[in-house]
Specification:
4-stranded antiparallel beta sheet; 6 helices; alpha+beta; single chain
């Protein structure tokens, strides 16, 4: 194998190790995307998540990558449902999406639910849930939850 072929092979291998652009070949990520579509109602490859930690909590945003009025409406409804469920301490949907019983941070978020607010808001092409608290322990749990989500969904913060 020539040097160019070896270099291209190394680049391809390194790209797949980083979670390169062709994510559909990663079966665990593909399964997560399928469960996400089932729970959220929108194509996960046609939408983008943001899990952003903020000093007083954080935010979860989900937006269609291209204009899609039906997808946008489904996302907005989902964000309202998530805000309501999380506010009552129900984190079943993230558990089903990630196929784990206890998503990191949610046990503390459930215990401290009276100290945390979840406010849905419409965004262009989707919506968000703003998570706020003044409780330091709750902030740490929210950040843990968002970091897990960000990593598992391979999502950025913006």
């Amino acid at each position: 194998m020539g040097r160019c072929a070896v270099a291209l092979f190394v680049i391809a291998v390194c790209s797949s190790c980083r979670g390169g652009d062709d994510r559909s070949h990663d079966s665990a990520f593909g399964a997560l995307q399928e469960r996400g579509q089932l729970e959220m109602g929108v194509d996960q490859y046609a939408s983008a998540h943001v899990f952003e930690p903020l000093p007083d909590g954080g935010r979860i945003a989900l937006q269609m990558k291209a204009a899609d009025p039906t997808g946008e409406s489904v996302i907005r409804d989902h964000m309202r449902d998530i805000a309501r469920a999380f506010g009552s301490g129900d984190f079943a949907i993230p558990g089903r999406v990630h196929a784990i019983e206890n998503v990191p941070g949610t046990a503390t978020m459930r215990r401290l639910r009276a100290d945390i607010s979840y406010t849905p808001r419409d965004l262009d092409r989707g919506g968000e849930v703003r998570i706020k608290t003044g409780n330091r322990e709750a902030i740490a749990a929210i950040h843990e939850f968002l970091a897990f989500q960000r990593q598992d969904h391979r999502a950025g913060m913006h």
